[in-house]
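tool_call predict_complex ligand=zinc ion
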Amino acid sequence: MPCVPWSGATLCKTSFMKVTGMGSRMIANALQDLRNEHVVPTPTKRPGNTKNVKHPRTKFALAVIDAIARVDGLPNPGQRGPMLLLPVDKTKKAMHEDYLRVHKDTSPSTTGGDALSYGDFVYVWRRHMPWVVSDKLRTDLCNRCMELRRSKNHVQLKLHLLPTRLERAFYHAHARFAALHANTLALSMDKAGTCRLPHLTQEPKDIYYTTGLAVDVFGIANLGTAHQVNYVVPETQRAMVQGADFMVSLLHHVLEGYPEAERVYILADNTAAQNKNNCVMQYLSARSVLRHQEIILHFMIPGHTKAANDAHFGVFKHAFKNKDVYR
Ligand SMILES: [Zn+2]
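tool_result ok
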């Protein structure tokens, strides 16, 4: 691999691997995929190789999973974790039932004997085809992705996912760069969600029929250190948080805490009222001039904007669920 330009510097292969956190095998596979014009990376077969499976019962079970995955499986739009997602209703239990049905209608010479038990079926699946999993319930997905997934237009879906992969790689590269360089700051910001207060783990009957105070939680995550600052605003002040003014105040509060940052990367979603507007642009422009900071404001493609702050809010929600919170 030749030297590559990266954020104003030229990196050799070793430095590139250190900055991006990629191993030589991953780089070799990515280059091979590019040469073969594969848009979606070839699934890794490291945990198990279906070609080396010799036992006919195992082989038959894997063939059934493979046949279902070919018909119902779709590329993972999140681009993390498993490569092929089965529909939500194709749970392990449902897949095992499908397997038993096919097993019953097939001759014993093909199936290799008795059907696998549920436990064995799941073990064989996990061991040899970990890149196929059942999808989970999700929200806030891209309309175009859902359209293409429903119409099973795999080619268009892969082409649609290509720019989102590049955007995500850009985001990850900045997060890793910030983790390694003290003078670089990478942030991602969004409204994380709404909670109701008071929140009690042991709820008395009287409280069950009352509606608590809704509080909006805005999260600004530091991608380099994986820390998040949550700003909590009660519904009584909701009018205040609708505009860009509020986001600028939050950004200013966070950025003032990092006076040494020379380069700032900010990931925001495409909400015009809060992030994608003149007010935020003018504030950041003024800041870059007055504080001599290089500022990159990045908007990912709508529907593909899940970032660290969403993951951190998941941790927050988990902690919130098991605690008594009054105010
Ligand atoms: Zn999409």
